[in-house]
Q: What sequence folds into this?
């Protein structure tokens, strides 16, 4: 089988003095679903735009299927971008929107309409072929945007926050559709998101970025079970970062054990209790008056224990109560840096 890997080599982008992307090395296997994940401003979109050819790298290379594409025009690369705002042409019907790129290339009407109809079928939009975009819902516009991007027969589909404009219900529905399309099309998807939940749900390869660099790349399970740094553990969530005499460790919230005060472990205070159905989230701090732990405060000392509901109700806890927090040695994962 032909290799269609996408490789980024020392990919760098400066805007004046500001470093948006600080030298990324990444290999994305052909046909995989990759999510670029990270907080706002970490360089995800700049990276995607350099792959698409909408931004010129300051340094480095983009290689697709063994071919250097760094300085090619967007249409010559074998990539297609689906934008955050779907940017459909308002005066063109759904069918003509999808067929547009082929029309620009001079493909005859019968051929381009046939291909456009096949793609509308794929995204379940056949009944809407004659409509204008203004008469479609957000989810429907998204499907048309996808069909339009696929018209160029790309090897790599680039998706910039494709679900961010949708309401939570539709977002989950479209997530399942993205998975299905990825499976059916067999092409590489590179999807930018700031939602760890979205990345974990979709990606074969999760690439967590921080300040223009790749902080960790791996399967969702690898990143969740073996977060490399405190930043990753906090960003992925559901982990406590605890300073111990042998360095910082990450412990999953559901593996954090609470015992009556005086028991083994660290003496902490219950700050808040949140009932969540199958589990109860117990927020903990060294003292009751401590501020909430903020993501941007790396030294913050707030923790969460996720206690199964039956266990919690057998021995309920209340804010202000002192407890002992501990974990099994095997559940403490040593962090770097
Ligand atoms: N055209 C530009 N000119 C100057 N600075 C820019 C430009 N585009 C992006 N930046 C800066 O580069 C950094 C990375 O931006 P980028 O859009 O790639 O981040 P992001 O991770 O996609 O963020 P978001 O999730 O908010 O879209 C940011 O600090 C941003 O302000």
A:
């Amino acid at each position: 089988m032909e290799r269609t890997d996408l490789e980024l080599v020392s990919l760098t982008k400066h805007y004046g003095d500001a470093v948006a992307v600080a030298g990324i090395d990444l290999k994305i296997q052909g046909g995989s679903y990759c999510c670029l994940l990270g907080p706002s401003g970490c360089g995800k979109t700049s990276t995607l735009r350099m792959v698409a050819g909408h931004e010129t790298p300051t340094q480095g290379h983009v290689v697709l299927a063994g071919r250097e594409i760094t300085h090619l025009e967007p249409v010559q690369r074998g990539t297609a971008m689906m934008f955050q705002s779907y940017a459909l042409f308002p005066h063109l019907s759904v069918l003509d929107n999808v067929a547009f790129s082929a029309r620009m290339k001079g493909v005859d009407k019968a051929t381009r309409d046939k291909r456009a109809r096949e793609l509308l079928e794929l995204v379940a939009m056949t009944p809407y072929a004659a409509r204008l975009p203004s008469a479609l819902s957000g989810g429907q516009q998204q499907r048309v945007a996808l069909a339009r991007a696929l018209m160029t027969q790309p090897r790599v589909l680039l998706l910039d926050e494709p679900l961010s404009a949708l309401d939570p219900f539709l977002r989950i529905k479209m997530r399942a559709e993205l998975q299905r399309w990825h499976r059916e099309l067999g092409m590489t998807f590179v999807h930018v998101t700031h939602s760890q939940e979205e990345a974990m749900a979709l990606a074969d390869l999760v690439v967590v970025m921080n300040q223009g660099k790749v902080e960790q790349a791996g399967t969702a399970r690898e990143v969740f079970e073996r977060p490399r740094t405190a930043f990753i553990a906090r960003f992925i969530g559901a982990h406590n970062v605890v300073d111990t005499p042998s360095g910082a460790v990450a412990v999953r919230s559901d593996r954090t054990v609470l015992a009556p005060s005086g028991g083994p472990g660290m003496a902490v205070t219950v700050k808040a209790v949140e009932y969540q159905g199958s589990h109860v989230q117990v927020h903990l701090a060294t003292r009751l008056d401590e501020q909430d732990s903020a993501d941007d405060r790396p030294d913050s000392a707030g923790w969460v224990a996720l206690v199964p509901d039956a266990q919690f109700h057998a021995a309920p806890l209340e804010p202000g109560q002192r407890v002992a927090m501990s974990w099994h040695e095997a559940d403490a994962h040593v962090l770097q840096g």
Q: What stands out?
A: Residues 240-334 form a domain with the OB fold (Dihydrolipoamide Acetyltransferase, E2P) fold (CATH 2.40.50.140). The longest helix spans residues 168-185. Residues 15, 18, 20, 38, 40-46, 194 surround adenosine-5'-triphosphate (CB under 6 Å).
